[in-house]
Structures are given as structure tokens and as C-alpha cells.
Amino acid sequence: MGIHERKQREKEQRRKQIMEAARKVFSAKGFNRATMEEIAGEAELSPGTLYLYFKNKEELHTSLSIDILEYITVQMKKFINRDDINAEQKMHLLKDTFMNVYEYDPMVLINLFHLQSGETLKNLSPEVIEELKETSADALSTITSIVNEGINQGIFVKRHPVALADIIWATYSGIVLWVDSKRLLNNEKDFVKQTIETAFEIMVNGFKRQ
Asked: Tens digit of pLDDT for each residue in 159-199?
């Protein structure tokens, strides 16, 4: 391995080290309360080193959001091309994917949904915004392909597949944010998984042709 390749590998390892530290701090404290100094401490690096890799806290957090979007898409792509199950069965696997991703890291997922509708986007570099757009589009197109398959199979109603995919994603994000806010305000138990289960049952029934 040449010097350039070794430096690139070390740089990528350092970036992953920072992101893992950031994930732990964001998950424990939330985006607003977390600081770059705390993340640097968790990563056992100087704060200045973090800024060599990420412009600011918003950009670091967005990188985590991009990672979780990519993870969701990878999980979906494991079953979207299966020929042994139909679109309705794939919708149930999609539901399971959404619930598993929430279990994997609820705080990063919650902050992802806040990111998509918040002021954070204004503090990102054009390159990171473009990467976020591409990753989001890939995730949405994967969901759209499941819906479109259901339409072509005569299982789902003939509506624009992107609109139906938007409904699925908006329902998922809305449930995660709403149930989380209820839990914080009322000190209730986490009912996200049960609510997603119910929502998908209603959506799948609503998507079906009568």
C-alpha cells in the first residue's frame, strides 16, 4: 500500500471514529445540548481535529443522518427484488425495517426527521446538502418501487406511486416525532413500534384495490 492510500485509509478511519463518538453523544444528549467539545472528548481527539473533517455540529449530525438513510435503503433493497413475495408482503417487511431502524438508534432517527424540516439545512455546505438530497431520493425511490409493484400487480389502487410513497415516509416520520414528543411531555412509555404497526395496517388496507 502506497503512502497516499495509507493516508486516505487513516483519514477515513478517523472520520468513522468521530462519527461513532458523535452518535453516542447525540443519542445521549440530543442535538441541541450536545457540543463539539463533548464529541471530541468522546473520540479522544482535540476539538480542532473535528473541524478538519466537519464544518460544524450541523454537518457532523447530517453525516449521521445520511448514514442512517443509507442503512434504511440497504435494508429495503434486501427484499424489494424478491420474486417469491408480492408487494403487500414487501410492505410488511418495510414496516419491520422501519421499526428495526428506530430500535437501532431512535435519537439519530428523530433528529433526521427534524433535520429534513428545520433550519439546520441553512448551515450545511452545498456538497453535504447534495449528498443528503441524493440519499433521501434513493430511499424514497426504493419505497416507490414497492408501491409501483403493488399497482402493477393489481393489489394497490391506481394512484401516483410517488404520492403513496410520500404518504408512507410522512407517516413514519410523523409517528416517530409525535410519539417521542408525547413521551417527553407526559413521561409516557415509548409506543412508536405499536403505532407504526397500527399505521401500516391501516395504510396497507387503504392502498388495496376494493
From this structure: 999 999 999 999 999 998 888 777 766 666 678 888 999 99
Give the C-alpha separation, 61 to 190, whole Å: 23
Q: Domain 58-207: what homologous superfamily?
A: Tetracycline Repressor, domain 2 (1.10.357.10)
Look at residue 104 and give its three-state secondary structure.
Answer: helix
For the chain, how big is the Rg over CA atoms in Å?
19
pTM of the model: 0.84
Q: Let me know: does 199 contact 171? Beta carbons within 8 Å.
A: yes
What distances in angstroms separate CA 59 from CA 62, 72, 112, 177, one per listed residue? Answer: 5, 20, 12, 21
Which stretches within the chain are classed as H helix?
A: 3-29, 36-43, 47-53, 57-77, 87-104, 106-116, 126-152, 161-186, 192-207
Please report, for the chain, the start and end positions of each structural domain, with discontinuous segments joined by +: 1-54, 58-207
The three three-digit cell numbers of residue 191, written as one number: 409506543
Domain 1-54 grouped into CATH 1.10.10.60: yes
What distance in Å separates the CA atoms of residue 160 and residue 169, rounded to the nearest whole number? 15
